[in-house]
Amino acid sequence: MPIAEVSPGVSIAYETFGDPSDPPVLLVMGFGAQMIAWHEDFCRALAGRGRYVIRYDNRDCGLSTRFDEHPVDLGRFIGLVTAGDIPPALAMMPYRMQDMADDGLGLLSALGIERAHVVGSSMGGMIAQTMAISRPARVLTLTSMMSSTGEPDHGRPSAEAQAVLLSAKPSDRDGYVAAAERELVWSSKRYGDPALLRELARESYDRAYYPAGVGRQLGAMVLGGSRADALRGLRVPTLVVHGLDDTLIDPSGGKRTADLVPGAKLLLVADMGHDRPRELWREIIDALDAHMR
Hints:
- The chain is α/β, with parallel strands linked by helices.
- Strand 1 and strand 2 form a beta hairpin.
- The chain has a single domain (about 5-155, about 210-290), classed as Alpha/Beta hydrolase fold, catalytic domain (Rossmann fold).
- It has an 8-stranded mixed β-sheet with strand order 1-2-4-3-5-6-7-8, sandwiched between helices.
- The model has no long low-confidence stretch (mean pLDDT about 95).
- The longest helix is centred in the last third of the chain and has 15 residues, at about 195-210.
- The chain has 12 helices and 8 strands.
């Protein structure tokens, strides 16, 4: 697995698909998920459309740099944020959303790529938005998938989905894999498959089980704040993709993103939740392909 140093002390694990001479596409994964959540077959199918596809592990996840020297008491952090006591919450976190965006841009630089199409999923959509806002010259197109704007009134999770997101997973392999079925709460109602959820959990556990990074990633996401004003001024060609079955980030998050970004296109996908069922890959990849031309 190749690893690139993207800034002093931060190395990012990545994988590529396709011909490096083709237009590059950077896939940015979401909260607590390793790059393998971008399924290899999905990456190869996108590369088959004449794209050089790059997937990577965010910091504090998978095989990328871990911030073990900054342990986070997640319960205390959530309590501080809930109480509106933001300064001590900020002090608990060693990095911000911008740092995670800079990791992706730094990976492109390490690969000798000046500009790329950027596709972000969930928290990865927030990171991708931040890339486009902070360094628009480096983003050929932006695709924000199953994501939101950082405004608390848009894209809210259902109570059940939020409870699953914040619940601790068992530390043993069998328990961890079995607990993956809880994610059916935000999956496609038609195509949600507990066997596939268990398979990804098994692969993730065996590849790089690392629950300690979750709290720090959550902190960066929660403390990122609203991007609404910046999105209003964004001039990067933008596609917003959101599943109508999504209960983790309600479709209002995608609609709001598309409303804010001038000229943005909105694709609301029936039978898609907070996931990318294989049955819908053709529709999603067709939309990405058209957007990146």
